[in-house]
Amino acid sequence: MNKEIEKAGITIVQMANLVPVAKTVGSNRIVPTISIPYPLGDPNTTKEEQFKLRHHRVGVALDALTTDIKEQTVFKVKI
Known about the structure:
The chain is of the alpha/beta class. The chain has helices at 2-7, 19-24, 47-66; strands at 14-16, 29-32, 73-74. It has a 3-stranded parallel sheet with strand order 1-2-3. The longest helix is centred in the last third of the chain and has 20 residues, at 47-66.
């Protein structure tokens, strides 16, 4: 679906925990996430830590939207 949205001229970022799958299906901008049940969080951490994690990942995704790319790109995130 990402490829079809981009064909319409809309830039899109896929946030995915299975980066190889995102590459295989042709996503151009990929931001890695944490896990399948909690893509943007970790229930074993405090609410403050989860907020920082989410804030960082969403920030990377927003930056990815404005980044000019020529090929599939996996954007770096803090661990």
